[in-house]
Design goal:
By secondary structure, the chain is of the alpha+beta class. Helices cover about 45% and strands about 15% of the residues.
Length: about 625
């Protein structure tokens, strides 16, 4: 039979149990505003019954607090982590799209953009019509507006270049955050297992680990697998602790106590002609293998930063190998089939059959219409005949095909427009003579880093914008419009210094002594709104095309962001319904547990009175 003081043991077990419940409730209340904290509950069960060898067989022994656990639902956690990757991606994209849109804004005279400057330049050009062609003041006014026009493109391009550098720096920061999170997860898992292998649950540490996963899931898509550590020979024998595996796009990032790191490696060669120096490739530190940034399952803020930095709308150089020699490869392009659309770097890396080859230069062969029929890339590597023949018919590309309108795309669009516009404008200029009756050269030119001006003399373009293949030599090093980008777009220094060096008429008109010596001005005026220059539109439509691109991207991103934020809020509500601390609920628990504690204390008092009567009142 139980001891005489068995009732006191039962009462004390209740006091201890409800004291633990009150303490747990107090801990919940103190953490009601703590980020990542999950509500904890003290789990109780009836104590083991004791056999008393009486007719009723056994008697209860009180209550036991078996554990204090945090309330979490792994299903809601997984849904939240999956959704957060998309939230992070579109938040990051919206941030950069807003900055890109800012560079193209046109608020009229207060903040002149393309439309205002382009219109003003042609208004000043119109002032040179008729008998005003020789008016030097009007010439200076036009040249000044032309300089504003070139400065506009330089400013936008430099702004986008800075933005690309910011993207690059952000990628490095995000990679550092991934590495830091991986290290924290491994460290917390080690602490959790050290505690739980001895019994109990490391609730606070588990909350900290889940919070790290919450933050990590916004950067990259992750999956989490947790399984108990068991005896390999006896799978039902739990040894204590758990295996905790975090995977990033299918690759293991954390394996319980061990973790891997990513590292940023600066590129040795540019992919795009206008890329800033030192763009990073992300690789796994332990293997040196490239992290698959363009995987279809990739998501999160890291993907958005990579997309905005490298996004080319899938218009990177692509083509099929036609022939391969000892140190050359001839490729028929499927993209970049015009000189205006060429955006690849003058030297870099071309990928064929998933293998990278460094090319030192390239030549271009034109068809009868002045379009690009083929590229011939030159390599320092010498291929044997077997390797060369194996490349024929294979697909080649330069850089990744990133189907997003990022900074390289907008840089390429500007280069395409100014090449098309400048080649037409310069062709009209070169058809005439200046006020000194000297043949006019190029008015819009490119300025190299060493201060040299390129006048595109290796490329012969007529006033219809067609390149004459018989009179043109196009290569990565030739003096052609390939060298012209928004970053180096200027007005020829000779024309800036001397307004007389600008053609408004032809030598034939001068010899014929025509009264109106501005026929070239009249022809160039058509470049404003009559001649197709860019994406099926005239010159003045350039900004509309760009704004259309930005608007489509922004609206799409805004719509997706709104959807994913709504889903996130719904999932968060579901998570909080399980793991959140509710003040009213905790206050009610305090009252319930206090009453139970008081009853247990009253039971002790009752038992004390009984024992006093037994010992002192009936003693002999």
């Amino acid at each position: 039979m139980p001891s005489t003081f068995f009732g006191l043991n039962i009462a004390s077990s209740a006091v201890n149990a409800f004291q633990a419940a009150i303490n747990t409730t107090g801990n919940n209340i103190s953490n009601v505003q703590t980020k990542g904290y999950s509500k904890q509950v003290a789990n109780r069960q009836a104590g083991e019954a004791l056999r008393v060898y009486q007719k009723y067989g056994s008697v209860g022994s009180g209550v036991v607090t078996t554990s204090i656990t945090a309330l979490r639902n792994s299903y809601y956690d997984t849904k939240y982590w999956n959704n957060q990757s998309s939230v992070g991606r579109y938040e990051m994209r919206m941030n950069y799209l807003a900055q890109i849109e800012h560079y193209y804004e046109d608020d009229g005279a207060a903040n002149p953009g393309f439309t205002t400057i382009f219109s003003s330049m042609f208004n000043q050009l119109n002032e040179l019509s008729g008998n005003n062609a020789a008016d030097e003041n009007k010439r200076k006014n036009f040249i000044s507006e032309a300089q504003k026009f070139t400065s506009y493109f330089q400013n936008v391009a430099n702004g986008l270049a800075r933005l690309q550098k910011d993207c690059n720096d952000e990628i490095k920061t995000l990679v550092s955050s991934i590495n830091s999170s991986a290290e924290k997860i491994a460290s917390l898992t080690k602490q959790i297992n050290a505690i739980e292998i001895q019994g109990g649950t490391a609730n606070e540490l588990r909350d900290q680990r889940a919070l790290v996963i919450d933050e990590l899931s916004k950067i990259v898509p992750i999956t989490v697998e947790e399984s108990p550590v068991v005896n390999s020979n006896y799978p039902d024998m739990y040894l204590g602790g758990t295996n905790y595996i975090v995977k990033l796009d299918g690759q293991t990032l954390v394996n319980t106590f061990e973790y891997r790191k990513l590292t940023c490696v600066p590129r040795e060669h540019k992919v795009n002609q206008t890329d800033v120096e030192g763009l990073y490739d992300v690789v796994w530190s332990d293997t040196g293998m490239h992290f698959n940034m363009n995987s279809k399952s990739m998501d999160g803020a890291l993907r958005a930063a990579l997309e905005m930095r490298d996004g080319n709308n899938a218009e990177n150089f692509q083509g099929q190998v036609l022939a391969a020699g000892p140190s050359t490869i001839k490729i028929k392009p499927s993209t970049m089939t015009t000189i205006e659309s060429m955006t690849m770097a003058a030297e870099g890396v071309i990928t064929i059959k998933n293998k990278e080859y460094y090319y030192s230069s390239f030549d271009v062969e034109l068809d009868d219409e002045g379009n690009i029929a083929s590229y011939t890339f030159h390599f320092d590597t010498v291929f044997d005949s077997a390797a060369s023949s194996d490349l024929v018919g294979k697909q080649a590309r330069i850089g990744a095909s990133v189907d997003v309108m990022g900074i390289p795309y907008y840089m390429g669009q500007m280069s395409e427009f100014i090449r098309s516009f400048s080649s037409r404008f310069n062709a009209w200029q070169q058809s005439g003579v200046d006020l000194n009756e000297d043949p006019m050269g190029a008015f819009f030119v490119a300025k190299t880093y060493d201060g040299k001006e390129l006048d595109f003399s290796d490329q012969s373009v007529n006033t219809d914008g067609v390149t004459d293949p018989a009179k043109s030599v196009i290569s990565s090093t030739s003096n052609s419009y390939y060298q012209l980008t928004a970053l180096n777009f200027i007005v020829a220094d000779e024309s800036v210094r001397d307004s007389r060096i600008f053609a408004t008429t032809t030598m034939d008109a001068i010899l014929a002594d025509k009264e109106d010596k501005s026929e070239i001005v009249d022809a160039m005026q058509k470049l404003y709104d009559e001649v197709i220059l860019f994406r099926g539109g005239s010159g003045k439509d350039f900004l509309s095309c760009i704004y259309s691109d930005i608007s489509i991207d922004t609206n799409e991103s805004d719509m997706f962001l709104g959807n994913f934020v709504d889903i996130s809020e719904a999932i968060t509500t579901q998570r909080l319904s399980v793991s959140g601390v509710d003040e009213d609920e905790e206050a009610l628990d305090l009252v319930r547990f206090q009453n139970a504690y008081n009853l247990a204390a009253r039971m002790i008092q009752c038992m004390a009175e009984m024992y006093d009567k037994l010992i002192n009142g009936t003693g002999v």
